[in-house]
Specification:
The structure holds two protein chains of two kinds. Chain A is α/β, with parallel strands linked by helices. Helices cover 42% and strands 14% of the residues of chain A. The chains are: A alpha/beta, B mainly alpha.
């Protein structure tokens, strides 16, 4: 087969004969993704590689669920962008192809954590595309007005939240969205929690582990003392809280600053970015999760598809566009070294915001393990969080309920579960 | 083939109808019915008896295994899924009568000679039905959020704080969206039924001294009972299937969990929880529940319609 030939050819050194396969017809690859600017990168590839033509479809709404249904029905695109949280489910359900033979050489260009997130049982199932280190965007004008330093630890954060409330009862340090998974994940990862672990040949479930309990306690305090608003994120109501200065800070991933700038354009120059506050006695950062490009089960030309994915995410030619147009925080070494990453940002008063995110990425502990039934846990825990915000239970109780349900769900799938 | 054609043509010569003709006429219905109703139900039922099973960590692949009724046992053990049923029934018990009353009121109103500009008002009442339910829920979603809703801001300015998304009232806020969307179509069905009532009936009633109101309540309403039955039945089935409005409003409030209605629970289990086999079992349960409720409504309506018929 041509598979071996392409694998040897690697990223850039592929001559037309090797990529084209046995016939002279160009190979056609269908690729679905959501990162801004992918159209231009695909056009560039098609120009340079007449023998492998990529057709791009921009994913919106529930396209991710469409992909699953299509793959299970024996159809679907060849390549798709996917949250790495969902990758184990795809591997177990055999929706993705093992591409170890095509991309193994790329490993050295990726951060160890991102490469680990696409590797299972020693096999590689995707090419990492960006990660989500967290930092805090805050209204420096509001903090200055009330003479409050932006906190560096969560203990100081609670004090700052109380001080803001005291100064103005309509002022909250943040919005605690019961529906936003990433904001929970980045804080529990910072606390070295992991929903999954592997013990021998069995999964462990850590939804209510020590790290998660620590964050639950903090969120409970914020909620009980009325220090936060509790609107679901992304709603008009939420953006109005941001724009009218009701909330003074937002802690989220490296892809969020550009979204904030877009949705709060009237507040340009009033925001700064600081490291996410830390837990006492720790310098850990957090990460809400990354993405990967995977070759789906029904792709007939996995070698060509993997070759394109490898070029798209790892080539020197694409890093700048992915960072500046795509808004990605790179998971590649050449991306992290790209000068594009260190540009000043006008909205944040000329701050080189990625310096903060680079530091966060360096300080993120490698404790998080991806596992199966992520979708199930997410749905369950968010429903339980909603009940917490309504005052029906506490965060600690929500974790217990989810922990139990998650174990039952894994066992129902026939998977081995061990006590953590 | 040739013999049957010959037989057919001979019969036609004798003026008899081909025995295949009726089947031919019902064929389009039967084919679509089998393909889009019976087949999916059969597939769902078969799916519900299986489960995807892995072993160990799961990376060795998985297989689909027969598990009997295990998925049904799991579905019936899911308290949140089961609570969805009384919730939508409560919703239906309030929403359907209110909707039918408003629809009947408008239909009777437009049927009287008293209304000026009837076509315009009919169109106005009907218009919301032309708005897809997802769009309707998005529109109302804006009206339900205090900082972007002119309606809530107006009430706030006169000292009344309304929070339509609060956990105690969110069910009725959903009902309001459905009401707004569906009154129009029900009004049109009832109004059309009224047009087929023989006009002599009204003349007779007038001669006997009945006024507009009495004619409406004692002549018109009983005469359109079958249409009321049809609309009530489809409305009740509609409420059991409740999905679009709460699913959309879920994105703006934490008071609607992912398994708020049975249909939402099925969706969440299949697409978010990634267990299509359990979801199939839940779908079969919902289908059976809908069938039972439909039969009950049908039986109840048959009795009342018969009584009304004898009364005339």
């Amino acid at each position: 087969m041509l598979a071996g030939a392409v694998a040897v050819a690697g990223i850039a050194a592929c001559s037309p004969e090797e990529g084209a396969g046995p016939s002279d017809e160009p190979v056609e690859i269908e690729f679905w993704g959501w990162v801004p600017g992918l159209e231009d990168l695909v056009a560039q590839w098609n120009e340079e590689n007449p023998d492998v033509q990529v057709a791009f479809h921009r994913m919106t709404g529930d396209d991710g669920q469409k992909v699953e249904a299509a793959v299970d029905a024996g159809a679907g695109p060849d390549l798709v962008q996917l949250s790495t949280h969902n990758l184990p489910d795809y591997v177990i359900a055999e929706r993705v192809q093992d591409i170890t033979d095509y991309v193994a050489d790329d490993e050295s260009n990726y951060t160890p954590a991102s490469w680990a997130s696409v590797s299972f049982d020693g096999r590689v199932f995707g090419v990492p595309q960006g990660i989500g280190p967290a930092a805090t965007m805050y209204r420096h004008d509001i903090f200055a007005e009330h003479g409050i330093e932006f906190p560096t630890t969560w203990t100081e954060y609670l004090d700052a939240a109380r001080a803001l409330q005291e100064a103005d009862e309509d002022l909250y340090i943040a919005n605690l969205s019961p529906s936003e998974m990433g904001q929970w994940l980045q804080e529990i990862q910072q606390a070295e929690s992991s929903w999954y672990g592997i013990a021998d040949d069995a999964w462990t479930v850590g939804v209510d582990d020590e790290g998660s309990q620590l964050v639950a306690e903090r969120w409970q305090t914020l909620l009980d003392e009325g220090l936060v608003t509790t609107e679901p994120m992304w709603t008009p109501e939420y953006w109005s809280l941001v724009n009218d200065g009701t909330i003074a800070s937002i802690t989220y991933a490296a892809w969020f600053p550009s979204i904030l700038a877009e949705n709060a354009s009237g507040l340009a120059g009033q925001w700064s970015i600081a490291p996410m506050p830390t837990n006492d006695g720790s310098t850990n950062g957090g990460d809400s999760g990354g993405a990967a490009v995977v070759v789906l089960a029904n792709a007939e030309q996995p070698a060509a598809a993997a070759e394109f994915a490898s070029w798209l995410n790892g080539s020197d030619d694409t890093q700048e566009a992915l960072i500046t147009v795509g808004g990605l925080f790179p998971s590649t070494q050449n991306g992290l070294a790209s000068p594009a990453l260190l540009q000043e940002n006008e909205f944040y008063g000329g701050q080189v915001i990625n310096e903060v995110f680079i530091e966060a990425a360096e300080n993120t502990p490698a404790t998080w393990v991806e596992g199966p039934n992520y979708g199930f846990i997410q749905t369950t825990i968010l429903d339980e969080f909603a009940r917490v915000v309504n005052g029906d239970q506490t965060f600690a109780e929500a974790l217990d309920v989810t922990q139990e349900a998650a174990i039952a769900d894994l066992e129902n799938r026939g998977l081995e579960v061990a006590a953590p | 083939m040739s013999t049957s054609t010959a037989t057919g043509s001979r019969r036609r010569r004798h003026g008899a109808v081909s025995p295949w003709a009726p089947y031919l006429f019902v064929a389009p219905f039967v084919v679509l019915f089998l393909l889009f109703l019976v087949a999916p139900i059969a597939v769902a039922f078969v799916n519900s008896l299986f489960s995807r099973q892995s072993s160990g960590l799961g990376f060795g692949g998985s297989s689909i295994e027969f598990v009997g009724l295990a998925n049904f046992v799991r579905a019936f053990a899911d308290r949140d899924f089961l609570i969805g049923f009384p919730r939508v029934l409560l919703y239906g018990a309030v929403q359907v009568p209110v909707m039918m009353a408003i629809a009947a009121f408008f239909a009777l109103l437009f049927d009287t000679a008293l209304v000026k500009g009837r076509r315009f008002f009919q169109f106005t009442v009907f218009l919301p039905y032309a708005v897809p339910s997802v769009i309707a829920a998005l529109l109302w979603g804006f009206l339900y959020q205090p900082s972007v809703s002119p309606v809530l801001q107006f009430f706030e300015s006169v000292g009344i704080t309304l929070s339509p998304l609060a956990s105690t009232v969110v069910l009725w806020s959903i009902a309001n969206v459905a009401l707004w969307s569906l009154v129009g179509i029900n009004m049109i069905i009832l109004f059309s039924a009224l047009q087929s009532v023989p006009r002599e009936m009204y003349e007779a009633a007038r001669i006997d001294g009945a006024g507009e109101v009495r004619t409406a309540l004692q002549i018109k309403l009983p005469m359109i009972a079958p249409a009321v039955l049809l609309t009530t039945l489809s409305s009740i089935i509609g409420t059991l299937q409740l999905f679009n409005e709460p699913q959309v409003l879920q994105t703006i409030t934490s008071n609607i969990p992912s398994d708020y209605t049975p249909n939402m629970a099925i969706y969440a289990t299949s697409t978010l929880g990634k267990d299509p086999h359990l979801a199939s079992a839940m779908a079969v349960i919902l289908g059976l529940a809908t069938l039972v409720v439909s039969l009950l409504v049908l039986a109840a309506n048959k009795r009342t319609t018969n009584r009304a018929g004898h009364g005339l």
